[in-house]
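Q: I have two molecules that I believe assemble together. Could you output structure tokens for the complex as a whole instead of separate predictions?
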Amino acid sequence: MNHYTDNKDLKFHLTHPLMKRIVELKERNYIDAETYDYAALDFEDAMDSYDKIMDIVGEICAEIIGPNAEGVDHDGPTVENGRVTYAKGTQENYDALVQAGLVGMTLPRKYKGLNFPLTPYVLAGEMISRADAGFANIWGLQDCAETIHEFASEEQKAMFLPRFNEGATAAMDLTEPDAGSDLQAVNLKATYDEKSGKWILNGVKRFITNGDAEISLVLARSEENTTDARGLSLFIYDKADDAVTVRRIENKLGIKGSPTCELVFKNAPSVLVGDRKLGLIKYVMSLMNGARLGVGAQSVGISEAAYREALKYAAERAQFGKTIDQFPAVYEMLTNMRVKLHAERSLLYETSRYVDMYKVLQELQDEGRKLETEDRNDMKKYRKMADIFTPLLKLISSEYSNQIAYDSLQIHGGTGFMKDFPIERIYRDARITTIYEGTSQLQVVAAIRGVTAGGYLERIREFDAMPLSAEYEFMRRHLQVMTAEYEAATATVVEFKNPEYIDFHARRLVEMAGNIIMGYLLLQDTMRSEEYRISAEIFIKKGAAENNERAFYIKNFSLKDMDLYKA
Amino acid sequence: MTKKLKIIVLAKQVPDTRNVGKDAMKADGTVNRAVLPAIFNPEDLNALEMALRVKDKNPNAEITVLTMGPGRAAEIIREGLYRGADRGFLLTDRKFAGSDTLATSYAISCAVKKLGEFDLIFGGRQAIDGDTAQVGPQAAEKLGIPQITYAEETLEVTNNSITVKRRLERGTETVKATFPVLITVTGSAADCRARNAKFVMKYKHARTISELADAAEDYIALKTKRPYLQIDELSVADVQADDTFLGLSGSPTKVKAIENVVFIAKDAKVLSNANEEIEELMKELIANHTIG
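A: Yes, here they are, computed for all two components at once.
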């Protein structure tokens, strides 16, 4: 069994035409092949390697991580003497991935990485989330390596990065009891120690995923007498220094295999990443964007798992003389689940390619390469798109994963409410995705810029100009109508120049943009493969109806109606 | 340990008989290989894992995968390399065709001798196509070395010995043997590790000379730069084997017929515990080869 080969969608997205440019840039004319026996020789070779490595991930997911998921959910991690022990299955999962050389996938080869673009890494994340969403967090925290690589000093990179491939685990220590969504309120204290040249950390962190990791990125207040983001810096703490203890781990609704820790820092030595005061403003924002893409992958993986459970159950369960997937009420649900899954997955990989494009161009520029004007413009363009697509993806995919898990459990009927089938775990695991790494409400705050500043519309216009077969033209016309409606709704809301009013309608507008964007993405997918035609057609029809409802609501709403909602 | 352990893993490419459909057998009673995917024999993977675990603890150990089969069996060597084996040989020759277990174990013993000194040979207990469990023991006999069968776990490896836990019908047995020794491994031993990403990328272009004949130009150039990408083939002549002990002429096993047997409970029979009735049943069971 293999979670890569049993799902054709994955290879379809992995082989998107833009990968050619991403890989060419990432491999810098395949220069590494001179030095490393595992480096790509050319584009075809690189793509073949991604395919083969995804096959390994798919096998580990199907043979090890998936089968372990129930036991991991049941046993969970434990904490004793301030140290976390993973559930047996969790440790097995991680060991298998380390042995297969899959940690530090995106790091350059000189740090023992595979030098993969983000897209195949995100794809691996999706598969692992399908197998066990809670475990995906532990694996996905290798994102921290990406942040160290981007912002730390050469010396720090040489010290920390190679450890990832050897199996080091990571954590990002941001949240505190009084600093959740509002990270500006972070209070953990960092003081510079002249003697050792290190920063000493003291304080408490809460809700830290995988808090007992070997390498931790810690957001702390380095500037005395400050209260906002400008006083915060980012630090690396090494568990080898043994100065942080786990006070407790949370007992959670879902993702139970992933230890959520409360940490006590007692004179914990650490090193500063990059510049002081840029901790939250620059580094954590970058880290968060990576994490949000990760939650996107996690959500799509959960959706896939939930959809498969529903499909299987509905095909086996017979009532009134036939299997329940023969009834309109059920087959409509199943098809809608698949349509949402196709749409969110397309958005996931579109976003990951944007991030890939701008990051690799940024890397080249940071290496001192003089970029051509076209490349410089692309860097700006893709960064801008990544910035508005990432919160859109996080918002939509996390909400979809919950809807799909809900419907899947519903299809299971009373059986789904029991602990006997995987769906109850998947349903619980899905619930966190709309909350952590920024709630859905905060994703809207980040995404609304894409509406008001016109970024989404600009991209929609580009999609609209892409070549399309005549037979799909009717779908494009629907999307054009939806776009006009979205523009009008946006204008109605923005017209008042009232920030609160924009916030009030923000989610409606962002979701309208999302429906149009995913509609166009599914059309593009259909151009590459007929397999997606039905999903495109259904999605666009339903999206048109949904958008219409929102537009109607906005149109008939006035500024003073907001008061009805205030206590 | 300072000694450089030399380990050979015997592996076979087999048709995947675990999920057979209607057309798995041809009308003449032979296996329809075209419809069954060729896979790494499962217990040979257990054997490879056991060898890799010895190497994990003794990093300078060298693992050689030896397989016998047609040209496409080179895939088995690559699968071994992807998991951490150091090199591999494909024992291939038209003259091997039709070999039974006796001829196969003879060919393998000749190849092992050709490969030079060794300390440990691991192989799966049996292959899922023939299920004989004979090749390992026969090869050990022909090489004149001790053997441990049904091995489940390695407990200790020293400079000149290995201690192994054997899986028996009702329990386990711990045995120790000095090198060189041949060990056959059961399916209850640890599962084989997954392929390693770097090894896959390093060795995916490894080819035998025969495979190279069909390869693209660039990869031939690559081979010159990276000699480890060459998988060596061994012929009958290479291993100095005697033709008469190989192939059909070297194989006393003759397949008379193969028939598709479907077990179904046809009818029930009620017996009393009278001696005559039991006697009667015994005779019947012996007659139809259920026992005896």
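A: One point stands out. Chain A has three domains: 8-165+281-434, 170-277, 440-565.
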